[in-house]
Amino acid sequence: MPADVTLAQVLEARGVSRRHFLGFCSTLAVGLGLAPGMAPRIAEALERARRPSVIWLSFQECTGCTESLTRADAPSLEELILSVISLDYHHTLQAASGHAAEEARHRAMRDNAGKYIVLVDGSVPLGNPGFSTIAGISNKDMLLETVRDAAAVVAVGSCAAYGGLPMAAPNPTGAVPISALVKNKPLINVPGCPPIPVVITGVLAHVLTFGSLPRLDEQLRPAAFYADTIHDRCYRRPFYDRGLFARSFDDEGARAGWCLFELGCKGPVTRNACATLKWNGGVSFPIQSGHPCLGCSQPQFWDAGDFYRPLSVPLAGNGTVAAAAVAGGVAAAAVGHQLAQRARHQADGDRQPVTVEDLEVKP
Amino acid sequence: MSDLLLWAKGPGFSIALFIFLAGTVLRLGEILWLRRKTDLAPAKGEVLGPVLRTIGHRFLPAPGMLRKSPVVHIGGWTFHVGLFVILFLFTPHIVLVQAFTGLSWPGLPHSLVHAVTLATMAAMVAVLAARISDPVKKLLSDVEDYLVWGLTFLPLLTGFLAVGRMGLAYDTLLALHILSVELLMVVFPFTKLMHALTWVLARGYTGAIAGRKGAHS
Amino acid sequence: MTTSFANGMAALIQQIDAPIASYLQSCVHCGLCAEACLFYTETGEAKYTPIHKVEPLKRLWKQEFTLFGRLLKALGVVKPLSDADLAEWEELVYDSCTLCGRCTMVCPVGNDITYMIRKLREGMVASGHAPDSMKTAARNALNGISPIGVGLVALKKQIEKQSKETGIPITLDQEGAEFLVVLSSMEIIGFPEILGALSKLFQRAGATWTIASDAYEGTNIGIQIGSRDVARALVQRVVTAAERLKVKTVIAPECGHAYQALRWEGPNLVGHPYSFKVIHIVELLDQWVREGRIRTKGKHQDRVSFHDPCQFSRRGGLDAPARRLLAGVAADIVEAPDAGAMSWCCGGGGGVSANHRAEDLRLKVFTAKKRQIDAVQPKQLVTACANCRNVMEEAIDHYEMTLPVLGLTELIAEYLEDDAP
Q1: Quick one: which of A282, A280, A279 has its CA closest to A293?
Q2: C367 and C257 in a common domain
Q3: Per-residue pLDDT tens digits for C34-69
């Protein structure tokens, strides 16, 4: 699509009704935590926006974030945003390949210097640049080169935001999140494995509408989507409060839809919008489908103890610790016992019986 | 999960567990290994009955003592029962027991545990006030008594705040709660907290010594 | 002179066993023991808290028998137990504890504080920190036989008087007698009627008995001062006599701690089980009454209440036979509040009555016992311990009460059925 076509023209060309478009803007307004009255303003801004250039860099990633964004059933929110932006570089979606693809990236950077948005998914290996290269260029080099003239950087997915699966112990590639390398650039983290599609689009819409970053928390996540924990918005919360828990995956409690805390749900420590916005166009989310939250939008969730270990249970490996401790205690007690026995024997030798003489009283 | 929480659940717990278990085994060993000299006087009464009876009876106040020390008794029972309820009938703790032993049982509704926690904390404050104001207890008390009180109160307070999401971020509160428990675990073997395990021995020995003579205990 | 701090430490180290370690580890400083102790309740002085009295024992246990305690001592974080500490604790350990055992009954974790005081005294006396008057009594007992100087001559005189009154002879050193009776000096000079009573009872039961001229003292100042060496010497006298005279059973007198010394501590002191049995005179009489070997007739009409001697009732379990016997001869018995296992001490046990320094304190704390008695207003008290009798008579006098104190054995003898069974 040519970059200088407006969205209004695009939508008309695609036969998307205005009603549908306004509905999309309302969803975005609500999702961003804005008043419903903001919807028209979002619509107006998007309609008139010249389609900004977006460069999508993919590093050590599984393409799940792209899949999330592009999984579509009907003319979807995701498709719409892809109509709004000019996605000038994306490994999976672009038609060009090879040198042509890299040339497209460089052209977009040149033509939109200072104005383009960089979306990144995947972590960057620092261990050996050869672990992940594109067109012979290391991820790190490509990242630093591309963000140099960017207006903003969005780290999409837990790998880009926190290092994700590649960074999980033992981190063989020396993977780091984008924030470790991108300094002095407006950066937004959109964690999730993958993130909820409308969260990605909502962030972009905010940037396009207001020309600024949404309010971010201390982990650079948009507060609109990441302020609450799953637990605080979970529809199964009343069961947690009443102490009704599923014990195993197909037991009575599971079938009755009780809380999944005992099955390892990380909801209480996971911040994301899954419990409110849900997935697949608001159809469901893991807990609703009977599976405990993995905590996938939190840092190091792969190393936070296994997914089915309840939150209140310490991480594994303590069987050995316990055995070693008992052995240590027995050994220490043996030492203590030896010292005590020695003191006793010494006392047996030292003690003089009390005699009549000892009972003399000085006048 | 924040770094502090991960540390508390990971290395923090392993360290605390090691010291707790090793220390407890050491202290129990140091007591039991001392043994008792064989009694050469012929026994008059049987021993098992008095042992069991003494172990059971000392949960109740001795005749006339409840009236003399109501705060110690009521406050003491309240916080002991309260701690028991919180530790063993609150589901996030039950799953902890299950993780280590495989045993589990249903928990109480959280509103009830909430009320019990408040009562427990109030009882603890009451017995602390009694300890400070009563000349007998003040004379007996040393740094260890106050330290143990504080370290027992802290998990109650941090747990209460964590469940209620009060004050700090939940991650942080949960981490502080777990860390406060770990602190308690580390000091447990080296303080009077060991009474939680040795009460059976002490009551049992007294029951045995008296029972053998046919005397009262 | 072998008493020294080192000797005291050695003595204490020998005393620590698993029960003591479990007690000291379990104490949570709840202070309930004070509420049970007459020395605290009647004075309000926190220092008389029972567990506080054994503080030196706790410090010794920690520094010698726990790795952590050894570490703290090595690092200088805690000061080691010193002679000054033992000196400071002497008054608490001897003047303000009768080994009555009420504290043991109320401790929520089950500590036997009495047991610990007894053992702490071993270290006190071995380091020279015991009351002068008790040391003197112990010396007297070792050199003579009686701690209060009641010699054989005095005994023989009382025997002669009693025999004349009853018409029943009492033979000393009779080999082959079934029973060897030991007495308390207090009985011999204070309540000599016991001899006549015993004569009648044994005769009616058709049992032979004797008194050893070199082992007639059952009380054991060694137990009270806390020296197992002294205690052993005193028990050994009785053991030697019993073996020499080939008796089947040794009878412990109306006394609390004599029963504990002979029956329970004795074999452990001399290092071997006895070749004879030991029972308390009250046990014997109860047995005989139940077997029908002796029968009583008539009942004492005055309202009486039984005073439970601490080593006899609470720590001896003999309150039941005593009450059975009393019920047979008294028509009007009232039980004071707390009677039996929780009864209040007369204030003179555990060596306190032999501790002249503690006299004022002992009289002061009698108010606990007095309260018990006043609640039921008996005409007379009946008891089974000569020391309690003596201590209470003195206190009753001090508080200007009118209250005779009778001995149970004498009372039984008084109502013995005249006809042969």
Answers
A1: A279
A2: no
A3: 999 999 999 999 999 999 999 999 999 999 999 999
Give the sign of the dihedral formed by CA A197, CA A201, CA A202, CA A203.
positive
Give chain B's end-to-end CA distance (angstroms, integer): 53
Domain co-membership, C82 together with C141: no
Tell which of C22, C54, C62, C113 to mutate to test the B interface (max B CBs under 10 Å).
C22
Going by DSSP bridges, is the β-strand pair A187-190/A152-156 parallel, antiparallel, or unpaired? parallel
Does the domain at A230-358 match CATH 4.10.480.10? Answer given as yes
Angle at C337 between CA C332 and CA C341, to 5 degrees: 100
The last residue of a domain, from among C130, C153, C179 = C130
Record the pTM.
0.88
pLDDT at A204: 81
Cα A271 from Cα A295, distance rounded (Å): 8
Helix A77-84 vs helix A7-14: angle between axes, to the nearest 10 degrees?
130
Contact map slice: B 35-94 vs C, CB within 8 A = 35-37, 39-42, 44-45, 54-55, 58-59, 62-65, 68-69, 72, 76
Q: Quick check: is C234 in a domain?
A: yes
Residue B3 has pLDDT above 90, yes or no: no
Instruction: State how far the Cα of A201 lies from the Cα of A195, in Å rounded to an integer.
Output: 10
CA of C351 vs chain B CAs: smallest distance (Å): 21
**pLDDT of C343 strictly over 80:** yes
Exposure of A356 in the CB half-sphere (CA atoms within 13 A): 9
Contacts of B171 in chain A (CB under 8 A): 269
State which CATH number among 3.40.50.700, 1.10.3720.10, 3.90.330.10, 3.40.50.300 fits the domain covering A52-208.
3.40.50.700
Mean pLDDT for the stretch of residues C279-296: 96
Place of tokens 């149970």: C408
In 3-state terms, what secondary structure has residue C417? coil
**C214: Cα within 13 Å, side-chain hemisphere:** 11
Q: Which residue has the tokens 């009830």?
A: B112
Residue C419 within a domain? no
Terminal alpha carbon distance of chain A: 119
pLDDT of C316 > 50? The answer is: yes
Structure confidence at residue A316 as a pLDDT band (50, 70, 90): confident
C-alpha closest to that of C102 among C376, C349, C356: C349
Residue of B nearest to A241 (CA): B110
Over the stretch B69-96, which tens digit does the pLDDT of each residue have? 999 999 999 999 999 999 999 989 998 8
C47 and C188 in one domain? no
Q: Identify the CA nearest to A358 among candidates C35, C399, C222, B162.
A: C222
Percent of chain A with pLDDT over 70: 93
A-chain residue closest to C122, CA distance: A354
Chain A CB contacts of C127 under 8 Å are none
Residue C404 φ then ψ, to 5°: -65, 150
pLDDT tens-digit series, residues A32-81: 888 878 888 888 887 776 678 899 999 999 999 988 887 644 445 556 66
> Domain count of chain C?
3
| Cα C45 to the center of its chain, rounded Å | 25
CATH number of the CATH domain containing C118 = 1.10.1060
Q: With beta carbons less than 8 A apart as the criterion, state whether C187 and C212 touch.
A: no
Question: Domain containing C276 — which CATH number?
Answer: 1.20.1050
- Domain containing residue C261: 133-288
Name the pLDDT band for A3 (thresholds 50, 70, 90).
low
B201 interaction partners in chain C (CB closer than 8 Å): 18-19, 22, 26
